[in-house]
């Protein structure tokens, strides 16, 4: 919060908690972006290193400018890695507990925070509700991965 005040983003250091438990979840989104961008970056970097420079040099020799090389050569080759990384990041953030518990609003709670609250309840009957919520989270992520696999196979067939 001191850094935000020194940069002029906020007036006083005690104003920083505005991003904590805010109504729109901006603090949570910023935290997830901060945590997950490196994962996507590592995946994209690995894909780019495996490609080599031959494709870009070939496009340059055919007269493609920088934007055309990116749009028509690099982006289609990198897109499977970006989509795979996006699925991993979505599954992680959808099942994340710590960020919504610390930065999220009290109501409505995310599914993971609700599940953990049921697990921590001294009433053992509440744990079954927590397990049901955990299964719902798993089913949602499972169907998302199935949808991604179906779309990627469809895209491969079209190529």
H-E order: HHHHHHH
Mind describing the biggest β-sheet?
none
Helix percentage: over 70%
So, CATH architecture?
A: Orthogonal Bundle
Radius of gyration: 22 Å
Number of helices: 7
The percentage of residues in β strands lies in under 5%
Per CATH, the superfamily is: MetI-like
Question: What structural keywords apply?
Answer:
about 160 residues, mainly alpha, MetI-like fold, 7 helices, about 0% strand, flat
Task: Please explain how this structure is put together.
- The chain is mostly helical and 159 residues long.
- The chain has one domain (21-158): MetI-like fold (Orthogonal Bundle).
- It is 74% helix and 0% strand.
- The protein has 7 helices and no strands.
- It has helices at 2-6, 26-51, 54-61, 66-94, 98-103, 111-120, 126-158.
- α2 (26-51) packs across α4 (66-94) and α3 packs antiparallel against α4.
- The longest helix is centred in the C-terminal third of the chain and has 33 residues, at 126-158.
- It starts with a helix and ends with a helix.
- The relative contact order is 0.09.
- The model has no long low-confidence stretch (mean pLDDT 88).
């Amino acid at each position: 919060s001191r850094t935000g005040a020194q940069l002029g983003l906020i007036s006083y250091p005690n104003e920083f908690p505005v991003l904590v438990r805010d109504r729109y979840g901006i603090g949570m989104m910023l935290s997830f972006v901060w945590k997950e961008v490196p994962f996507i970056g590592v995946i994209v970097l690995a894909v780019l290193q495996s490609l080599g420079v031959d494709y870009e040099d070939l496009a340059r020799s055919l007269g493609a400018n920088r934007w055309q090389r990116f749009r028509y050569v690099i982006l289609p080759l990198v897109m499977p890695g970006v989509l795979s990384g996006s699925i991993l990041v979505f599954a992680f953030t959808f099942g994340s507990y710590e960020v919504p518990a610390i930065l999220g609003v009290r109501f409505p709670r995310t599914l993971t925070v609700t599940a953990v609250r049921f697990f921590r309840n001294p009433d053992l009957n509440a744990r079954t509700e927590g397990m049901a919520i955990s299964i719902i989270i798993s089913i949602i992520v499972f169907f998302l991965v199935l949808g991604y696999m179906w779309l990627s196979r469809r895209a491969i067939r079209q190529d």
